[in-house]
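Retro notes
What went well: the complex prediction finally ran end to end.
Inputs used:
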Amino acid sequence: MTPAALLARGLSKRFGRAWALRDVDLEAPAGSCLAVLGPNGAGKSTLLRIAAGLARPSAGSLTVGELAAARRESRARIGFVGHETLLYPALTARENLLFAARLHGLGDAGERADAALAAAGLEALADRPAGALSRGQAQRVAIARGLVHDPDVVLLDEPFTGLDRPAAERLADRLADLHQGSRTVVLVTHEVSLAPRIADRAVVLAGGRVHYTTDAAPRDGPALEAAVAAASREAA
Amino acid sequence: MSRPVSESAPHPLSVASGRPSLWTSGALLAGLLLLYAFLVASAPGDRVQGVIQKILYVHVPCAFAAYLGFAVTGVAGALYLWRGDERFDRAALAGAEVGVLFCTLNILTGPIWARATWGQWWAWDPRLTVTLILWFIYLAYLLLRSFTEGSERGARFAAVYGIVGLAAVPLNYFAIQLFGGAAMHPDNLEGDSLGPGMGWPFAISVLTGMAAFWHLFRLRVDLETRRAALDFAGESGPE
Amino acid sequence: MNVLLAVLWKDLLTEWRSRDRVVAMLVFSLLVVMVFHFSLPGGASAQARENAPGLLWIAYVFAAVLGLNRAFAVELENDALSGIALVPADRGWVFLGKAAANVAVLGVVQAATAFAFGLVFDLDLARVALPLAGVVALGSIGICSVGTLFAAVAVRTRFREVMLPLLLLPLLVPVLSAAVRATASLAQTGEVGFAPVQLLIVTDAIYLIVSFVGFEYVLDE
């Protein structure tokens, strides 16, 4: 299957009277890694959730490959790591991964769960209930959960939350590796300093609108930070 | 499922064009009400029940209007889920509100009539009971809408509930018929229990009831459309 | 189908680990039996026995509402519900899995409650245990079908505990009237007529289908 591109056109989303996203156009070509930056309340999480098929646009469109993100076929290709871990505290790490694998219809769910644990270096925690894991450990299991079905599009919402600096940097390296495998990655974060390590393009959102995009490799951390600061001031 | 690309909230100018049709439905209603009043006043009293029987001319049209309202809610809700057009959602809400209004009137006039003719305020007969259950269902619908505070998600929840509510109507009928209390309602819908001279007043009263429903429904939809237009206008200002 | 089984497995396993939902439902049910016994006149008299099937189903509905609310409250922790909504299949299968788990958990509570009822109201339910189980199962399917659908709705509104009974109870009239009728005739005569069972089957079928389709829309944001 060819890697999928993510494309938003005129995307808008309303919750009650408030517009979380207004007329957003953006693109993550197949195989690229897009960082979505911006201050709190910018609509970044909403954007990601629409891409994952969890919410539907109020207007405009968001497609993954050729199909709308909300379609079942799109959901099969997407791996989502949200703000929260999506884990069941009463189930062990392995059982959580097993459940996710089964939801995706994987026949060899057991092997996949074990492989995901191994890839994330979590074998020791396999039989620990998810409720007993530390924030950082739970986060790693959550990421393994999002990747268990080997998706071509990976969406991550603030994956660095709750991680200390060394752990965050390790995760950033791991994400950069992920991206090498021709997957399309969309990363929402407000850790602007980590974005350049992983992403090859960036977009800055504020107040639900796009304020800045760059598709040159944003190795320039300070420029990105300046763009985010400017966007925050404008939107305030 | 396709989604309209453009905003589905109406442009403020298009709201104004709803006004002429409100005048039409209002005028129609006013005309019918006059005719209705005349016919009901001059209709013969029932031999057995006396003049209280005339409450039939209110009670039955209210029932029809209520059921119509609930049907609108269910169907408009389904269309909203399918097409995503907010106008369907507004129609569903209006249908439920106006339906509940007429249902309440129906439930209030029923006991007045029952007391006069059967000697008791209430009886668990099939039609009354089903109407009561329906009242509860659509009250719950309105509560659901108010507890979700006008969000899109709330509209979707309400649409699903409206559809299930509509599906429950025939089920409730069968249930009450099979197991409920003895039927005390006159089988008046079959037509022959209406005495002579009552045919026309009855027909006009039903028509008036429909016209009243239509006018109130249009008013409510108009109100809701204006509110949506206000929200839309509020957002397009400069940031 | 795999999705159904996966969700069913997950729900039952989660419940087994903590057993808090089933215990709460059970204790609540037994409390209700006790309250009925003390507050209604007649004790174990013939009149009380006539009312018993209705009371039994009231107890079942209360327990069901409690369990249904809990079933989705669990999903709100860590936003697990989104994890389920991501499934690349018709979300109706998720609904069926959850509804099946709810029926199973409710079934355990119902069996215990029926036993308690039999004791308190001096009813010999053991001899009709099998057909009674069938009737109770049909009733539970009706309750848990629209119950699961609207629990998913109620848990994301304000006043979630209050919302579910408000939404659910009027819809359950066909199920309850048929179930009570069937239970009463089983308890009194040992036989059950075709009419209540037929109504239960038709209602269950309609509610299951509508809930299956509706669940897709209910999981969206």
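What we learned: The interface with chain C takes residues 81, 133-134, 136-137, 140, 143-144, 147-149, 153-154, 156-157, 159-161, 163-165, 167-168, 171-172, 174-176, 178-180 of chain B (CB under 8 Å).
What to try next: split runs per interface for comparison.
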